[in-house]
Amino acid sequence: MRKWLRIIGAAAAAYAVAYATQLLYFRCSPAVDPHASLRDPARCPSCHIEERPERGRPYRQMNFRKDIYTLCTGCHLAPVTHPIDIAPRRGTAGKLPLDADGTMTCITCHAPHDEAHASRRFTGRPLVEKIRDTVFPILPRPYRTYFLRVSNVEGELCKYCHA
């Protein structure tokens, strides 16, 4: 009987340590919001020509130091998963920002200055997050937004351009 109590106690302690680690990670880790530094006004000139660009100004009126693809791939080394530099059919992109020549860029779908997490789902969930939610059911669930402009749980973002 004592052996079982020790096993249960050790399991409870391991659960508590894992829970605390997860909680600290979601509150303190810089990896939780990789774009946090982009919200620092001192970093504006690294992408924008102006020292303090006007927030909310239409994308076509923004003045960037380089083209958007070059700015994004300066940090994101992985290959692009969606074609860029293509023009969606007239009127299909809705309110999504297109480049000055009417073509798609990375920021057509992604808003790099938005929040990294939200209280609602933006996409499907990776297996790791599903396991975390099962093992730690009362842990707060910050859903990753992937900096998408629109939730894409049911393909809503994709439907702006694709029928």
Secondary structure topology:
Elements: H1 2-28, H2 68-73, H3 106-109, E1 117-118, H4 127-135, E2 143-144
Antiparallel strand pairs: 1-2
Structural notes for this entry:
With about 160 residues, this protein is mainly α. The chain is built from four helices and two strands, in the order H-H-H-E-H-E. The chain has helices at about 1-30, 70-75, 105-110, 125-135, and strands at about 115-120, 145. The radius of gyration is 21 Å and the shape is elongated. It starts with a helix and ends in a 19-residue tail after the last strand. The mean pLDDT is about 80.
Figure out the total of helices: 4
Low-confidence stretches: none
The quaternary state of the protein chains shown equals: single chain
Strand % is: under 5%
Report how far apart the termini are: 64 Å
Biggest sheet descriptor? 2 strands, antiparallel
Order of strands in the sheet with most strands: 1-2
Secondary-structure content class: mainly alpha
> How much is the radius of gyration in Å?
21 Å
Shape: elongated
Record field, number of beta strands: 2
Mean pLDDT: 82
Helix content range of the residues, please?
Answer: 25-40%
Order of helices and strands: HHHEHE
